[in-house]
Specification:
- By secondary structure, the chain is α/β, with parallel strands linked by helices.
- The chain folds into 2 domains: about 15-180 and about 310-360, Periplasmic binding protein-like II (D-Maltodextrin-Binding Protein, domain 2, 3-Layer(aba) Sandwich), CATH 3.40.190.10; about 180-305 and about 400-429, Periplasmic binding protein-like II (D-Maltodextrin-Binding Protein, domain 2).
- Helix content is about 35%, strand content about 20%.
- The strands form 4 sheets. Strands 1, 2, 3, 4, 8, 14, 15 and 18 form an 8-stranded mixed sheet that branches. It has a 5-stranded mixed sheet with strand order 11-10-12-9-13, sandwiched between helices.
- Helix 4 runs parallel beside helix 5 (about 100-105) and helix 9 crosses helix 10 (about 285-290).
- The longest helix is centred in the middle third of the chain and has 16 residues, at about 240-255.
- The N and C termini lie far apart (about 50 Å).
Length: about 425
Amino acid sequence: MTENSKTTKGLTRRGLLKTGAAAAGLAAGSGTITGFPTIWAQTPITLRQFGTGVSNINAIAEKCKADLGITLEMTATDSDAAAQRAVTQPNSYDIADIEYWIAKKVYPAGVMQPMDVKKLKYYDKIVPLFINGKLTPDSVIAQGTAPHTVGFVEGQDSKTFAKEPTQWMTMVPTIYNADTLGIRPDLVGREITSWADIMDPAFKGKASILNIPSIGIMDAAMICEAMGITKYADKGNMTKAEIDTTIEFLIKAKQDGQFRAFWKSFDESVNLMASGEVVIQSMWSPAVAAVRSKGIACKYQPLKEGYRAWGGGLGLAAHLKGAELDAAYEYINWYTSGWVGGYLNRQGYYSAAMDTAKDFMSADEWGYWIEGKPAQGDIVSPEGKVMEKAGAVRDGGSFQERMGKVACWNSVMDEDRYMVKRWNEFIAS
């Protein structure tokens, strides 16, 4: 189910011709237009968006053009390149599709403008993880750069993150997930239950972790704690001594030949696992699904210590104003209205506005991806490729089970520069 039968409300084409595109654009930005498409076919708008490959997806750009008449020019980069571009080339983009740990680096530079939540049509549908850090009222907030800690600023012109929700949001959350280790169950030869298992000598030369410092260091921290090497006060904000302990552990493991490779891209991780060169590694959920779609056994293994989570969102460049700013708000409201959320959920990610996404998924898809129920029929990707057969249950279970066991978020530490320097020493060792 990829289309919604809801009728389009709001301005008519005839009315637009009478009132003029400029006035309609103002209405769009103010949130008074409630249906899609709106006026952008009459006043062509192009929005330049950049970010990581997980969410800069051609199908989203095509659907946006069809529904809104807005052209999206998408550029996909890795996480480190995205952080650098956001700060050093602020006039090269209109929409920053970045992770929250990147926002912590970028926002204080003044290259992005906060969003007025009164203009966000689906603000009240955003899952509370991004508002107060809690999945449920009883949840313990995980370590690291939890999205809500960098999700709001004090005022329209502020660069300082607010401790509580305000009217001004740094980014509208869009995509997130609970990450763990991917394994080849046909090749590991035993049950995998802990982050420590990646360091089993049996997997020497067949293990891999990802080479993005701010993310890789969190996987390393999960491994070190699981092995009893150290206990961090806060994995997401290590001291220099804790960083040194972690990096020295990694260097020794590398020199002992534990790692086959260090990957940076989705495709690299898929190829390593599909080829059998690697049997256990840091992985992303859709990469596991991509391996399985080749008919190769691959599992996203729940671990007793919990998950490492990440989240991303859409932010507005500081230079946006006028019709472009109005179009950006309309695009963001469209993004959270359900179609994109359903698309992302069917890839194995999670939508930040679950209620709207549900309208664009079949009951079986929702049951499998979100509720952890056995699939009643074949589960297919957004492109129509069979990902799971009837009877399959999602690795890790339901949304509540997976996101409820998050131990830490991807993070930017106070000692970030020192950490990156030491990480690069590890990779070069």
